[in-house]
Amino acid sequence: MSKNILVLPGDGIGPEIIAEAVKVLNCVNARFNLDLALEEGLLGGAAYEAEGSPLPDSTFEKARACDAILLGAVGGPQWDKLENRDLRPEAGLLGIRSRLELFGNLRPAILYPQLADASTLKPEVVSGLDILIVRELTGGIYFGEPRGVRTLENGERQGYNTYVYSESEIRRIGRVAFESAQKRGGKLCSVDKANVLEVTVLWREIMEDLASEYPDVELSHMYVDNAAMQLVRAPKQFDVLVTGNMFGDILSDAAAMLTGSIGMLPSASLDKNNKGMYEPCHGSAPDIAGQGIANPLATILSASMMLRYSLNEGEAADAIEAAVSAVLDQGLRTADIFSEGMTRVSTSEMGDAVINALQ
Ligand code: NAD
Asked: Which candidate in 112, 249, 309, 336 is catalytic?
């Protein structure tokens, strides 16, 4: 039976990087007889322009029915001024994540040895880096109600959001993190702000409670401000980090820079059955869209995570990852990871090089 993949190019560099990932998927599909069936859909600004909604019903129906989703990125300055926030591209992204209950966001930060020079940190601090950030994705302050901007009695305006996590939400992301740590180095660091925020006092309590079920995992806790500092001071002390939606958003971008470029980082967002949406960690990069210089490797590696986690095609995933490593060995670099002595390539040349390495 064929495996149906919904491809959502999105906005900005989204269509450019997705085109390369689709080329790679078509290549492994033929080589490994995967029986993948790819179908495209609209999400974000592109969907708003075509259908008046950043998450049209037709897209959601396809997303619900398919086996896995591959997303480029959404957003752009032309939609930032839309008064109705529900019509902005980001609402489409948050909507699809929450309606599909994709609560478990896995963000590996791996430094390919070939890119040690591309990191702004000293090679000895980052070489060999291999950490996994597990971010809760459908709760916390990004979704909490009430939220908005209100006018106080004295006429001053006040913005407000609500940071809320229920016990079951903490427990289910905790399980994803403990299980991930079991499959890796057996160390889990839970990041919170339990010295100030009650919601994370509960977070810490639930993590402690879960620890007794995973005696093979060593659990530690760290305040988020310290975690930010430790990530740039001595990132290799970490194996798996687990944290809430907003802290994870920020820490995973910091982790991205450890690896040289956000253009290298894939991610998976999984539901409780491991159905998932796979996307690069970066956004739609409107500053470089249309120039053919975006790095497609984060998206290609996201496609590889999709094969591994949702489609159980580990062999094809291994082949893609080996091909990415091979093109880096050949010295091929997009602009974001370019350094002296390397060969600068465009988005599509990088995709072609991965395919050549696969063949
Ligand atoms: P961004 O990640 O799009 O860009 C940050 C910087 O990284 C830019 O200088 C960009 O050129 C560079 N960059 C990003 N991806 C790259 C790649 N593949 N190759 C080379 N360079 C790359 O973040 P931003 O500028 O804060 O946001 C731009 C838009 O993206 C906004 O509308 C934002 O809402 C949206 N956004 C979307 C997602 C998503 O779709 N998951 C995530 C974050 C931001």
From this structure: 249
